Amino acid sequence: MNASGGGYNVQPVVKALHVLEYVAQQGRDVTLAETVKALKLPKTTLFRYLQTLSNEGFLFYDLPRDRYRSGKRFRALAQVDRDLQNLRDAARPEMARLVDAFDKTVNLGMLSDNSVIYLDIVERGRLNSQARVGHRDPVYSTSLGKAIVAHLPDFDLSSISQSGFEQRTINTLTDMRQLARHVDEVRRRGYAVEMGENEDGLMCVGVPILDRQGYPVAAMSLSAPERRMQPDLVSRAAAMLKEAATRISRSLSPAPEPSPAC
Fold it and tell me: For residue 65, what are the domain limits?
């Protein structure tokens, strides 16, 4: 039994992934014949895998030359993975500094449909929180989500109401007008505050991480028990979060070098 997958491997999928991996690793166009020789699969079966992967965009089939190479969808996925790793690498030192400064938990997340997915969490001790890396929470109940959507130029808040509001706690926003007011407040002050809206007793302060065009690629938040987050601490945390987010943004999108004088 596979320890990570529970023994439920679907062999055709595994073989197709091996084909994709082989083609991608060559760094050049490959033929059906050499792929058959390398992977030791029946020619007809391998042809079907190659054609299916090409039809789905994970490979590109050069018909005149009868050769295969990585496709747009595969390259797009690889680029997303690189971008996420760059984001985590840039954010991790800043998150650690915030944890040292406040002795609280710091979260990194990004928008995925109408949810926030946690990309990284740095904590000292153990905060009684349900958040885990890879978990999702609603946009409307988190400071991460509200910090992001407040800076999205084309985000339609009505899309949230169409998918429905889940009552996470007694404080969860379930009214579109309330959410719109919260989002307007985030735009005005530059950070979001969530008070027991996603988990009882927990408060979060969140800020967006913007690219050079001002687009919110992610957000970062500081979480703590609500009783410990006094107004002066919220203000100080918001200021330091914004400074950290600015440094992360600069690291991800450095300013272009000036053109040499003629």
Answer: 11-70
The three-class DSSP label of residue 100 is: helix
Comparing 219 with 6, which gets the higher pLDDT? 219
The vertex-119 CA angle with 116 and 121, nearest 5°, equals 105
102: Cβ–Cβ under 8 A, 6 or more apart, which residues?
Answer: 222, 224, 233, 237, 240
Counting the structural domains of the chain, the total is 2
Q: Is this structure's pTM higher than 0.90?
A: no
Instruction: Yes or no: say if 184 and 172 are a contact pair by the CB < 8 Å rule.
Output: no
* Residues 153 and 213: beta-carbon distance below 8 Å: no
Which of 58-72, 118-132, 181-195 has the least mean pLDDT?
118-132
